[in-house]
């Protein structure tokens, strides 16, 4: 990412990025820090990765704190927001990136697994947005970015994912549009990012996925985490100050088919 071009875009802002210990969340946290933001680095299990992200942010001269929470538990999500405000003094940007990917087919899914997926991929982000919005209303401004999935947009017959995962991400996507309507009068913007097939060192795409889907993209490649981070930075900054309730699909053009 072009650090010089983006430097200062988020100066004075505090961002909470969930699932920031690896992959897309980590890339977003670092992009925001390069743009001048201080970062609350959330993790559930990957403490080592979260601390690595925080260390890299501090090396950029920004304030970073690692905060643990299971966002599928509403009380823990509320505590996460409260801890962010306590440690940083404010909250300007929430990125709901953390989630649970699942490929369990219909006849093998259990009620417990269904509930766990919905809690992490929809209920948790929804109530995190609620808690963050309460703080943002008091500040009279804020940005919420929800990370959905391509399977929330269409059935994607070439790549199997579980129905509860698809349903949770679709719910988050549609709820984001309603949230944008409710929160707009308070100066809070809500937008959605839909990543395509994204490769990272921590979560590499299998070669069969890359070879199958790269030719289907208009840009003839699968994505990398920095592709998503650039879009998140745009949506978090004043460059998009008149954009809310929108969805940006970051997939190189695969879903035009």
Word description of this protein:
With 257 residues, the protein is α/β, with parallel strands linked by helices. It has one domain (3-256): NAD(P)-binding Rossmann-like Domain (Rossmann fold). It is 44% helix and 16% strand. It is built from eight helices and nine strands. The protein has helices at 3-6, 23-34, 47-59, 74-88, 111-139, 163-183, 207-213, 225-236; strands at residues 14-17, 38-43, 64-68, 93-96, 142-147, 188-195, 198-199, 223-224, 247-250. Strands 3-2-1-4-5-6-9 form a seven-stranded parallel β-sheet, sandwiched between helices. Strands 7-8 form a two-stranded parallel ribbon. Helix 5 (111-139) links the parallel strand 4 (93-96) and strand 5. Helix 2 packs parallel to helix 3, helix 2 packs across helix 8 and helix 5 packs parallel to helix 6. The longest helix has 29 residues, at 111-139. The two termini are 29 Å apart. The mean pLDDT is 93.
What can be said about the biggest beta sheet?
7 strands, parallel
Fraction in helix: 40-55%
CATH superfamily descriptor: NAD(P)-binding Rossmann-like Domain
**Structural class of the secondary structure composition?**
alpha/beta
> Which CATH class?
Alpha Beta
Number of domains: 1
CATH fold type:
Rossmann fold
In terms of topology, how is this protein built?
Elements: H1 3-6, E1 14-17, H2 23-34, E2 38-43, H3 47-59, E3 64-68, H4 74-88, E4 93-96, H5 111-139, E5 142-147, H6 163-183, E6 188-195, E7 198-199, H7 207-213, E8 223-224, H8 225-236, E9 247-250
């Amino acid at each position: 990412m072009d650090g010089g071009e983006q430097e200062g875009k988020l100066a004075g802002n505090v961002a909470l990025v969930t699932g920031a210990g690896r992959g897309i969340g980590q890339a977003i946290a670092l992009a925001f820090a390069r743009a001048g933001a201080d970062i609350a680095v959330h993790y559930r299990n990957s403490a080592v990765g979260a601390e690595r992200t925080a260390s890299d942010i501090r090396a950029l001269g920004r304030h970073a704190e690692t905060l643990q929470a299971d966002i599928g538990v509403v009380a823990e999500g509320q505590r996460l927001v409260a801890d962010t405000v306590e440690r940083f003094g404010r909250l300007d940007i929430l990125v709901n990136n953390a989630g649970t990917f699942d490929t369990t087919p219909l006849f093998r899914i259990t009620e417990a697994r269904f509930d766990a997926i919905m809690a992490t991929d929809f209920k948790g982000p929804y109530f995190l947005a609620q808690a963050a919005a309460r703080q943002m209303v008091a500040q009279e401004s804020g940005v919420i970015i929800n990370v959905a999935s391509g399977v929330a947009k269409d059935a994607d017959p070439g790549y199997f994912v579980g129905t509860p995962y698809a349903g949770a991400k679709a719910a988050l996507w549609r709820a984001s549009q309603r949230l944008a309507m409710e929160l707009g009068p308070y100066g809070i913007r809500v937008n959605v990012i839909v990543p395509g097939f994204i490769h990272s060192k921590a979560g590499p795409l299998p070669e069969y996925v890359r070879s199958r889907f790269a030719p289907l993209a208009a840009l003839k490649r699968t994505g990398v985490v920095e592709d998503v981070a650039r879009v998140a930075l745009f949506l978090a900054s004043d460059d998009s100050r008149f954009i809310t309730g929108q969805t940006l699909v970051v997939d190189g053009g695969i879903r035009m088919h």
